[in-house]
Amino acid sequence: MPGRYSTVTIVGPRATRDLALPDDLPVAELLPQLLRHTGPEEPEADGTGWALSTMDGATFAPGDTLAAARVPDGGVLLLHDATAAALPDTVEDVRDAVEDAVDAGGARWESGTGRLLAVATAGVLVAAAALSPGADTAVLLTGGLVCLLAVLMSWWSARQHDFMTTSRSSAAPSGPGAPATPPSRSSPQTATRTPRPA
Known about the structure:
It is a single chain. Strands 2-1-4-3 form a 4-stranded mixed β-sheet. By secondary structure, the protein is α+β, with helices and mostly antiparallel strands. The chain has helices spanning 27-38, 94-105, 111-131, 137-170, and strands at 5-11, 16-22, 50-54, 76-81.
């Protein structure tokens, strides 16, 4: 019966390839094909020994098989210089560091922040128009109306938001198929008995 094959991703110094490898062959027999697909152009030229490792840094012995090492189908293996460390030093990504710092800060942009920014922007624009030399009365009146409209829309939006969150939290499912709520311990349940006929 032929052995099974596992599809694994091999990350080499030159390329990364998805390969179907036999589970029952030792790693020493797989290395020439792996070097041909993902290794340097001329692997024997510099006399470097090569090793295969898992993503957590565990290096395979030459006699190990993929089945014995329990390499999952779809796993990722690293082909590297046998004298070097299997895993490179950790490289910090600036984007990830910024995301972590923002998440740790806990400050979130909420709807109230947006409303405050809209009203403040409208107020600054009206003040700038009023302070500009030769401001027309129509411009000031329009700016004042826009600012008033921004305040009213902000107030209305805040009321709608509060109403929606309150009504959502107070709504309880009822009717057929709704989950039954167990009786609370503070209100004892009384059972009424009907007398039996004698």
